[in-house]
Amino acid sequence: MAKKGKAKNTVNKAKHTKLFNRKKAKLKKEKETRKERLKTIAKMKHTQNETL
Predict the structure, then answer these.
(1) pLDDT of residue 1
(2) How far apart are CA 39 and CA 47, in angstroms?
(3) What backbone torsions phi and psi does residue 7 show, to the nearest 5 degrees?
């Protein structure tokens, strides 16, 4: 016989998925900003070496 009422874990799963997606997005953004920062540092270093 089927249970009556709300489905068991749907709310918790939805919250977990939301938070996990937020965490993944944050990590991806941090990775991209780090990559951009390293590119600018490398470019600055390269221009300094050319001027010397």
Answers:
(1) 61
(2) 12
(3) -65, 150
Per-residue pLDDT tens listing for the chain (52 residues): 666 777 777 889 999 999 999 999 999 999 999 999 999 999 999 998 887 6
The DSSP secondary-structure symbol of 51 reads H
Can you tell me which residue has the tokens 């965490």?
A: 23
Q: Specify the 3-state DSSP secondary structure of 50.
A: helix
Q: What DSSP letter does each residue of 2-49 carry, written as one string?
A: PPPSS-SSHHHHHHHHHHHHHHHHHHHHHHHHHHHHHHHHHHHHHHHH
CA 2 to chain centroid? 40
